[in-house]
Structure formats: C-alpha cells, structure tokens
Predict the 3D structure of the following.
Amino acid sequence: MTYRILVFSEEEENFVIEIMASPSTTFHELHTLIMEACEYTETGNHQFLICNETWKVKEKIHLHSPQSVGMDEDLYMMDEVRLEDFLEEDGQHIAYIYEPSSRKTLLLELVENMFGKKTDGAHVSRRKGTPPVQFDYSEEMPVPQTTTPNTTETDYDDTVETDDGDLFSADELDAEGFEVNEM
C-alpha cells in the first residue's frame, strides 16, 4: 500500500506538494522531506498535529522532547512513530508546524490509500507553486525608509502632490474647497 498525501497552505493558495509514502515511513522522514521540498531550515521543535475532520488536534508528534507534557498526554516522537500508526482513512487531516515560534503551519491530507501500489520510503511526486516563507531569524529586519528614494525630506516639506504630479505648498491649500460630511 502507498499513501498519497497532499501538502498545502492557507497562506499560499497556489502551493501544493503531493507526496507518495509507504506506511512504514516515519514522521521524521516526512518532516525531512517537507523541509527539503520547501527549502526550510530547522528552527525548533517542529510538530505534526493529528487532527479530526474539523482540524481539531487529537495527538501531537514532536521532533524534540518538549519541556513539559500533560499528565494525560501521550508523548510521540517523530523518529519513533510511523505513518501507519496514525493514518487510517482517506481524508484524514494533519497539520505540520514548520515555524514553531510563530506557529505557522502547512496542512496535510491523506487523499488516498493506494492498495496494490508499493513504494519505498517517501518522495515528492508533484509540486506546484511557491511554499509560504519561513521567517529567517538570521537576517536583520529592514529599517523602514522615512523618505522616498532619490529625494530628501526637504523636497516634500509642507507640500502635497496632486494626481497629475503638480506640487502645492500647504499655505496654498484652502480648506473651504473641501467638503466634510459629519456622521
């Protein structure tokens, strides 16, 4: 049997990856495949969230052992559990947290249990679009510019530009020419 899994994003509507995976594939192998296909870097404790049909989380599968686990929560690690341990029926939902600090997710759906077709491991069989951007902590945040490029602050000091490109100084404008509707 082979699982046909679609990976998609609410953030990037045109992005989709189709993955073919054997039931014995570990969640760690699936994690690595998604990270490589999207060209993401590991940034923390990535997780798979096994969800019900309304995307409510039923189980969590961790990359690294979490600092705390609830008394009633089972601890599942990606390198220890296989897809067959959690995937059962077509239409099953999984969320994959690819950016742990901001909880950004990709959504996965088991589209088809392909009986009679066998594959080893997991591989990307089709890909469309660009994956959502993963926040890069190594880059400095750009500093917003306060002036328009190739201008100085004095170029537009107390001036207003009209649709046709003409500039008027603030003392040339008359408030009587504007209509104000009160609510």
Summary: Strands lie at 2-8, 16-21, 47-51, 57-62, 76-77, 93-99, 104-114, 122-128, 159-161, 167-169. Helices lie at 27-38, 83-86. The chain has two helices and ten strands. The first strand starts at residue 2 and ends at 8.
